[in-house]
Amino acid sequence: MPAVIDKIAEALHLHKNRSTVASTPAFDEKKVTVIFVLGGPGAGKGTQCARLVQDHDFCHLSAGDLLRAEQHREGSEYGQLIQTCIKEGTIVPMEVTVKLLEKAMKAAIAEKNSEGWEDGRGRFLIDGFPRKMDQAEMFEQEVCKPSMVLFFTTTEEVMLERLLERGKTSGREDDNVESIKKRFRTYKEQTMPVIEQYEKLGKVAEIDSSVTIEEVHEKAKVAVQKSLARSN
Ligand code: UDP
Ligand code: MG
Question: Is 29 helix (H, G, I), strand (E, B) or coil?
Fold first, then answer.
């Protein structure tokens, strides 16, 4: 695996030893609000992000969706790597995901000019990321610091049921029992430590997502409003 990562870092023109690179994030957290949206697979991140976009003109970026788009992009050198990671429920080398997110953020800031998007300002819901501690560190150093983490929680039984239901129509290669079990494991082992770290910093709003979409949305909306009020 390290050889693969080196190859990718090289292809993306990333320096191998990042500590020698001046690390000013690409975006100023005073102008750009980043909210990380986390929770297990099937916890409701995507559904709730779609609702929150309507409330506050966020740009919703799902790391998984960006990776799937890159997987299918003609000429992408990461197609095979992404496909394997997604099916196995493992995490794609962070360089790929962080670059995709940064590129999408730049594009949104250049294009949008509605309220909250004037003079290089912007607000993002980054869904399903960071899933591992090293991704969080790289994103903070190179892209932007998050203002908060929305953390949706429910039981594995509920998540499994939702994912299997979604699998009937999603066409996703990872909405099957075998992949789901692997995703749960990656979530517990790699993503929970990220959430715990942000909890220590007082940045996490935990929301029980076992109830109806509307009820969850109401709670998420209040948490987001508080965070936006703080950063304005
Ligand atoms: N993934 C990844 N890095 C990320 C986000 C996603 O490697 O930062 C991969 C990983 O293999 C994951 C898959 O993409 O299992 C699907 O992610 P998605 O967020 O779409 O799943 P969800 O949590 O929404 O069910
Ligand atoms: Mg999702």
Answer: coil
